[in-house]
Amino acid sequence: MKMMKQFLINELQTGASMIQEERNIIETNKANAKRQIWVTFQKEGIHKYPAALDDPKLATGGWDDVSFLGYPHRHIFHFRVSIEVFHDDREIEFIQFKRWLQRLYDMAPDGNKGHGNTALLELDYKSCEMIADDLYLQIAGKYPGREVTIEVSEDGENGCHVHYEDLSKIENAFKG
């Protein structure tokens, strides 16, 4: 009986230390987690794909003809932007981040309301990938040293997903 009691005590202690070890692993994993916040917004835009008018791969005359894309046409561009953050307490406040992103398309460089083509970023003839690249340049300028992922779609239907690595990590890989 005494041996059985000691056996059970040892088992409970071993189990408790295993539970603590698992908790330590979980806490370490939580502390080292890569974090990103994301925001979404929409922007009405007119763009075109000039090559679609006469590129034989696009202006086929058949079921896969997309020559109409060569003319200005309207979309609601849907954006989803994720950016790396380094702690869990609103390092980048996402409502402010979203508003800043929207202003890039709405406002003139001096901060006044945009008129016509005075917005910092334009859609024009650009593909979703080009729009993402332009937006990334603005984000990287304001928030350097972070991974960023940008999705841009036309009408929430077709689009792109582009992941931009933290450039400092890439530079360090070449140094070391």
Pick out the low-confidence regions. none
Strand order of the largest sheet: 1-2-3-4
Shape annotation: elongated
Number of strand elements: 4
What is the makeup of the main sheet? 4 strands, antiparallel
How many helices does DSSP assign?
A: 4
Mean pLDDT: 85
**CATH second-level architecture of the largest domain:** 2-Layer Sandwich
Helical content stands at 25-40%
The fraction of residues assigned to DSSP E strands is: 15-25%
**Structural class estimated from helices and strands:** alpha+beta
CATH class categorisation of the largest domain: Alpha Beta
User: Number of folding domains?
Assistant: 2
- Terminal residue distance: 62 Å
User: What would you give as the CATH superfamily of the largest domain?
Assistant: 6-pyruvoyl tetrahydropterin synthase/QueD
Structure description:
By secondary structure, the protein is of the alpha+beta class. The chain folds into 2 domains: 33 residues; 141 residues, Tetrahydropterin Synthase, Chain A (2-Layer Sandwich), CATH 3.30.479.10. It contains 4 helices and 4 strands; from the N terminus they run H-E-E-H-H-E-E-H. Strands 1-2-3-4 form a 4-stranded antiparallel beta sheet. The chain is elongated and about 90 Å long. It starts with a helix and ends with a helix.
